[in-house]
Design a protein that fits this description.
23 helices, about 725 residues, ten-stranded mixed sheet, single chain, alpha+beta, four-stranded antiparallel sheet
């Protein structure tokens, strides 16, 4: 059964704070430009968009490519060789393609699909044949609509022919294959291209700047324009959607000029800082993230409280919890799906993913309800948006193999399906961290704690299971994969603190780690270990045995890992600011800086209606409401009267770096001493706020009296707000 609300912090095990300093009230993500994220690369460099210039390296076509036969050459000998390799029908289809190309019929140069071929070795032989004999053609493998059979698709390669076909299918609608049943809805992939110089790295690395889009969405837009499949791109980690972020991305054998040409067509996305490298990025290849976070509408009893709280965060740090993003933003937390998988309840896990849920778009929920009542897979597939990756993958598998729920779950991209299991590990870790802080505090190490072993040599370092990387192919709406949610850091081996360690004072609380359960992970040598097993037992899960024989969905088949209990922000800075206009920008984005330092090229992009920063950055009224120390909705400092008479408001701008896998929202939680749970405000509440801003010279008591509702609870009840909002 779907829950009626999203997961609360307490349910996720997030209950403690690192310090007893009081917090203050402030608005997080009032505008998405209030949350700026820059990736920190493995070499320690902060990734910023600073240039749209093309690299100095020139990607020339190889000499042998220049000398390669063109479409209008005599291919009779190669065609006879191809006839011997494949069937007559395939040879005839290829001959027809060559004839259309030679005739210059650009509008009619559609890909051809060869006969089904179940032999992977033979398909590889065919691919290699085209690379050798038809260098101006590109091949890839596509699947039949039944999802089982495979065939080879042949198309005009980039750089050949000079017409629209030379763009790899870009800029025109690809034609369907008629009634052949072969799927032609997938973008073309550039992996088969051999037009590349040996003296230039085969990967183009670029900086991806995006506004209010998640990583997969932004790369999906770019991939569609280039005719590339999503797997063509490599990146170190996903970044927040409701933010302005910059990160490194790599793509295989794509010229920088092609990518740079997209800037004038991209909305809320920019690419730049191009260079060619030998290797592509994979998940986890980053040092961390640099955050610039602006809290608006700050209200506190005194400036001293604000200063003490902010300085305290920089000095004392925060409990390194997994944030609520780890468990999804919907009413079905991902760790519940993970628990079902670990129990071997395949049908239950499928239902949790597919069933109707609270808080989702009405049209999508209607599709979910219809499928639950009627089991109409085709209707659901037609109406589920493509970003519901898990749902669509399950349904496609169930269509082929009705009732095979395990196989349907394995149809979900691996990084996404494993996120469910890793989410359950994170759930246990959070509860264990709270118990550790509750029971022993954070001022000292106690006997039995797990710590980084400072005495081990680098050769003894134990790698952590990085398969829990958030990212690739995880475009599911229910998992809010944020920039902080990266693979666990590789750490040295751990040890249990003993009495001798305590006497020497070798370790501090900064060294304490807790395990993510797995076959190679140690548990603490004190009472903290019990909570792992007790909570798992309540959920019907064993951490030491495989209950169902499917290794992929068993804790015992995972290595496990370790995570620091405590984290201090790195290179911490903050600034006290005042402002009057809620729509004003209080922090510069990369595009703002470019507009100031390189106005000609940057402003040309902005003036073409590309940047959404100035015009599209809207206030997050319903979903990012004011987070305060006591959960109250403040009526203080509300803008009343004309702009000239608006009171000054206070903002706090923070800048700090966190290692990969740390959640910036947990640092903000420590600062405000408030839950990061999303506060949903009804439309009536927004109307009330508009009404209140138009009232001049009335204090709060007079407003409540005029509205004719009790100050304590009545107004909240009438508008769907908790009574404590008006206490």
């Amino acid at each position: 059964m779907a829950r009626s609300s999203s997961l609360s912090e307490a349910e996720a095990g997030i209950t403690c704070f690192a310090s007893s300093l009081p917090g203050f009230r402030g608005v997080l993500k009032h505008r998405y430009s209030d949350f700026i994220v820059h990736e920190v690369a493995r070499d320690g460099a902060t990734v910023r968009l600073t240039s749209f210039d093309l690299p100095t390296e020139c990607v020339d076509v190889k000499e042998e490519e220049k000398a390669a036969p063109k479409a209008d050459a005599d291919h009779s000998q190669a065609l006879e060789a191809f006839r011997a390799l494949c069937v007559d029908a395939d040879c005839d289809a290829l001959r027809g393609l060559l004839e259309r190309m030679a005739a210059g019929g650009d509008s009619d140069v559609s890909p051809v699909i060869l006969s089904p071929d179940a032999d992977k070795a033979h398909r590889s032989e065919v691919h290699n044949f085209f690379k050798k004999n038809f260098k101006f053609l590109v091949t890839d493998t596509v699947e039949h609509s039944d999802g089982v059979q495979r065939c080879i698709r042949v198309r005009l390669g980039s750089g050949a022919g000079g017409g629209r076909g030379g763009g790899g299918g870009r800029g025109r609608k690809r034609k369907n294959m008629g009634d052949s049943g072969w799927r032609d809805d997938r973008p073309f992939d550039s992996r088969g291209s051999s037009n590349w110089s040996d003296n230039v790295g085969k990967f183009l690395r670029f900086h991806l700047y995006k506004e209010n889009k998640d990583t997969q969405e932004a790369l999906g837009v770019i991939g569609k324009m280039l005719g590339l499949q999503p797997r063509s791109f490599g990146f170190a980690g996903t970044k927040d959607k409701r933010a302005v972020t910059t990160q490194q991305v790599t793509v295989f054998k794509v010229q920088a000029s092609r990518l740079a040409a997209l800037n004038n067509r991209l909305f809320g996305i920019k690419v730049g800082n191009f260079c060619y490298v030998k290797e592509g990025l994979v998940l986890g290849q980053l040092m961390g993230n640099r955050f610039t976070i602006t809290l608006r509408g700050v209200i506190a009893e005194s400036e001293d409280i604000i200063k003490a709280a902010v300085d305290g965060l920089g000095k004392n740090g925060f409990i390194n919890y997994y944030g609520l993003q780890r468990f999804g933003s919907g009413s079905v937390p991902t760790h519940l799906v993970g628990a079902a998988l670990l129990r071997g309840e395949w049908k239950s896990a499928v239902n949790l993913i597919l069933d109707p849920r609270e808080g989702e778009r009405d049209d999508i929920n209607e599709v979910r309800k219809h499928y639950k009542e009627h089991g109409d897979i085709d209707m659901a597939l037609r109406n589920f948006p493509r970003y519901l990756v898990a749902e669509r993958a399950i349904l496609q598998c169930l269509k082929k193999c009705p009732g095979n729920y395990l196989q349907a779950l394995k149809g979900i991209p691996r990084t996404l399906r494993m996120m469910y299991v890793h989410s359950y590990q994170s759930y246990l870790w959070n509860h264990a961290a709270s118990m550790r802080v509750d029971k022993y505090g954070i001022s000292q190490v106690v006997e039995g704690d797990l710590v980084y072993n400072k005495e081990c040599t680098p050769g003894e370092a134990a790698s952590v299971d990085t398969s829990e990387a958030d990212g690739a192919d995880t475009g599911s709406s229910e998992i809010d994969l944020c920039s902080e949610a990266q693979p666990e850091e590789a750490i040295h081996s751990v040890k249990k603190v003993d009495s001798e360690d305590l006497l020497k004072g070798t370790y501090t609380f900064d060294d304490v780690v807790l395990p993510l359960p797995g076959s190679q992970a140690l548990f603490p040598g004190n009472e903290i270990a019990d909570i792992y097993h007790e909570m798992a037992r309540k959920d019907g899960i064993s951490l030491t045995e495989n209950a169902h024989g499917v290794k992929e969905f068993s804790i015992t088949s995972m290595k496990g890992g370790y995570r620091r209990v405590f984290q201090r922000p790195i290179d911490f800075e903050w600034e006290h600011m005042t402002y009057m206009d809620d729509s004003s920008s209080l922090a510069e984005t990369d595009l703002d800086i470019l507009s100031r330092t390189k106005p000609t090229e940057a402003n040309e992009l902005v003036s073409s209606g590309i940047s959404g920063h100035q015009s599209q950055d809207k206030m997050e009224t319903p979903s990012d409401a004011s987070i305060s120390t006591n959960g109250s909705c403040s009526l203080e400092n509300m803008p009343i009267g004309s702009p000239d008479t608006l009171p000054k408001k206070v903002a706090i701008k923070l800048a700090f770096t966190l290692p990969a896998s740390c959640y910036a929202t947990m640092a903000i939680r420590e600062l405000l001493k408030a839950s990061t749970s999303v506060c949903r405000i009804s439309e009536n509440t927004q109307l009330l706020n508009l009404f209140l801003t138009s009232i001049v010279n009335l204090n709060c008591d007079a407003i409540f009296k005029q509205l004719e509702v009790p100050k304590n609870g009545g107004l909240g009840s009438a508008l769907g707000i908790c009574p404590s909002c008006f206490e």
